[in-house]
């Protein structure tokens, strides 16, 4: 199976994430795309984090009804920082017959050289890079030059979607609508659990 691996904080997942996953699946002929929510980001704090299990539940709501998309608990259940190379090793052991494709935005791909064991990562998976405004193919290729395995990188196009998790959280905190920015199931869960709400008397950031 040609399997896409799409990691992220997903705090919360939104339509941009799903459109990226769909574009990768269609253009690269992936049979499935696995969303892998980070438990603990290695190099930064996760702002306004409702907890890894809640973010995983949000991801499950996001993919509901789309048989091409799955969610993995791998990083949520693993202790310590969530390093991508460790996740790819585990997936490679779990699914030895699958061809792994790590889905990255152009900005993330350009910084791959600073990740933990980047050449091991490139050995375990092909990287599938979303071309976006500001990070087209040429500058990314230049940044990756010199890394063994980078020549196997694949590029795919995705529509420009100006939605971010930060925007969604801020709108929730400000009591502004998020309908159409996130799948309906996510909006319902955010409402049910009062996620991302600013405390009474506190102005949203």
Provide an overview of this structure.
This protein has helices at 15-27, 52-63, 74-77, 84-94, 106-110, 118-124, 137-144, 165-173, 184-193, and strands at residues 2-8, 32-37, 69-71, 99-105, 126-131, 154-157. It has 205 residues and is an alpha/beta fold. It has a single domain, classed as HUPs (Rossmann fold). It has a six-stranded parallel sheet, sandwiched between helices. The termini are far apart.
Keywords:
single chain; 205 residues; alpha/beta; Rossmann fold; 9 helices; 16% strand
Summarize the structure.
Helix content is 39%, strand content 16%. The chain is α/β, with parallel strands linked by helices and 205 residues long.
CATH architecture: 3-Layer(aba) Sandwich
Q: Give the biggest sheet.
A: 6 strands, parallel
Structural class: alpha/beta
Helix content: 25-40%
Radius of gyration computed on alpha carbons: 17 Å
CATH superfamily: HUPs
């Amino acid at each position: 199976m040609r399997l896409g691996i799409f990691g992220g904080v997903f705090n919360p997942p939104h339509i941009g994430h799903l459109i990226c996953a769909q574009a990768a699946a269609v253009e690269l002929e992936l049979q499935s795309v696995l969303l892998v929510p980070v438990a603990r980001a290695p190099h930064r704090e996760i702002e306004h984090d409702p907890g890894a299990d809640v973010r995983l539940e949000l991801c499950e709501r996001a993919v509901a009804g789309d048989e091409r998309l799955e969610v993995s608990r791998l990083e949520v259940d693993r202790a310590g920082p969530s390093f991508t190379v460790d996740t790819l090793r585990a997936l490679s052991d779990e699914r030895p017959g699958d061809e792994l494709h790590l889905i990255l935005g152009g900005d993330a791909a350009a910084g791959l050289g600073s990740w933990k064991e980047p050449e091991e990562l490139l050995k375990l998976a092909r990287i599938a890079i979303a071309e976006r405004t500001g990070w087209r193919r040429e500058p990314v290729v230049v940044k990756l030059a010199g890394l063994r395995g980078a020549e196997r990188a694949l590029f795919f196009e995705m529509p420009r979607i100006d939605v971010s998790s930060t925007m969604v959280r801020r709108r929730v905190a400000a009591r502004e609508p998020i309908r159409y920015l996130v799948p309906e199931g996510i909006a319902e869960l955010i409402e049910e659990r009062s996620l991302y709400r600013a405390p009474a008397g506190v102005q949203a950031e």
